[in-house]
Amino acid sequence: MAEPVLQIPEGWDGRVPDGWEWRTLWDAVETGDHIYADSRVKESIAAEIHPKVILDDGLFPGFNLQGDRFTEQIIFIPEMLITARAMKAGLKLIRPLLAAMAVKPLGTFVMGTVLGDMHDIGQSIVSIMLENAGFNVINLGTDVHPDKFIEAARREQADLIGFSALLSTTVYYQKVTIEEFVKAGLRDKVKILIGGAPTTQEWADDCGADGWGKDAVVAVRLARELVGQPREAWA
Fold first, then answer.
1. 85 and 124 assigned to the same domain
2. Paired residues of 161 in beta bridges
3. What's the CATH number where 190 sits?
4. 78 lies in a domain?
5. Measured between alpha carbons, how far is residue 217 from residues 21, 94, 162, 194 in Å?
6. Which residues constitute the domain of residue 79?
7. Is the C-alpha dihedral spanning 10, 12, 17, 21 positive or negative?
8. End position of a domain, from candidates 65, 100, 135
9. Cα–Cα distance between 35 and 83 in angstroms, integer?
10. pLDDT of 55 higher than 90
């Protein structure tokens, strides 16, 4: 069956059909039911509901609720990943529509785990949540050399950079990589966040980072805040 195509009526004013129940979509995301999330978003598109409304009123409430629970350690990584899967099922349907309407991403975020560290679970969750929040995410993976971060930042004209480290033996490379951005003359062009189990706010301050993501939810909130702050423009 062909995918429904959104056709926004001329003069569309943001209304949704009478009796339209968003709670079902919230629940699908909250409980991680990616099949029903997919189905409900398709129904919303067929009803000519604006994709931004689907995102803000349908997908985000359930996702944000789980995000708060994750921060409070009521749920943990497996539950958050299941919720993220349901969120992505809805996003894959409305992203092309938002792009066609020239809805720009909040910013470009280059993410990776620092040199010598092969762990990616934490930064993968952050990447998913940043995408869900509206960022264009470039995930460089694990064991990323400082030069690769710098190359990606230049190529993508990044707004934000994220350095993850899960080992006490590799966390030092967060500081090293920031120093390399300084040497390359790029430090004032980007906002830098760090995160990972061995990290603290004190370490972030010592590194010269702009923020510390205690967990994925905090990292996304910081990213939304930092992307709006003044930076030196890319040439």
1. no
2. 110, 192
3. 3.40.50.280
4. yes
5. 27, 22, 14, 13
6. 23-100
7. positive
8. 100
9. 12
10. no
